[in-house]
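User: I've been trying to design a sequence by hand for this structure and keep getting stuck. Would you show me what you'd pick, starting by listing the structure so we're on the same page?

Assistant: Good idea, let's start from the same input. This is the structure you sent:
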């Protein structure tokens, strides 16, 4: 076996960079997840029932993606970050504390999707350069779904 390739046949130097960026995405997802859980728990007001249900739907989806991203990092021979301190240190998404207002929570959620979508597009390019079809497929599916969700959140805000 070629010593420049990892155990699944991808170039080690390319997937090392990709793994780092997937870990950065993982950190964003973890903080985003916690924000969505907080919105689900703390939302108040006339849109309570609608938003309570929506935030639960979103955090369950994000929780699943967190596991898939961590497993992808392992698959390309990296090590997923797993501490809150690491996530807080590198996440572009910041913690949203004690948000009760539905409009504010939706705005923060939309902003989170915008950050995640931009990072995923960058990761797609890196994965293409590394011929990493597994990461391309995973992230491509996320983007298609999340673009629609972002559009719906933006429409709700109008």
């Amino acid at each position: 076996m070629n010593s420049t390739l990892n155990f699944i046949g991808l170039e080690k130097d390319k997937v090392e960079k990709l793994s780092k960026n997937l870990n950065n995405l993982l950190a964003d997802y973890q903080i985003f997840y916690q924000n969505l859980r907080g919105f689900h728990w703390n939302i108040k007001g006339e849109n309570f029932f609608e938003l309570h249900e929506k935030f639960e739907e979103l955090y369950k989806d994000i929780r699943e993606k967190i596991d898939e991203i961590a497993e992808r990092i392992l698959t390309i021979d990296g090590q997923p970050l797993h501490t809150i301190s690491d996530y807080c240190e590198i996440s572009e998404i910041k913690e949203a504390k004690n948000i009760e207002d539905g409009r504010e929570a939706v705005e923060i959620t939309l902003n989170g999707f915008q950050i995640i979508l931009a990072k995923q597009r960058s990761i797609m390019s890196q994965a293409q350069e590394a011929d990493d079809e597994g990461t391309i497929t995973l992230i491509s599916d996320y983007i298609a779904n999340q673009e629609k969700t972002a559009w719906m959140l933006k429409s709700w805000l109008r």
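That's my pick for every position. To get oriented when you compare it with your attempt: The mean pLDDT is 97. The helical segments are 12-42, 48-75, 84-90, 102-129, 133-157.
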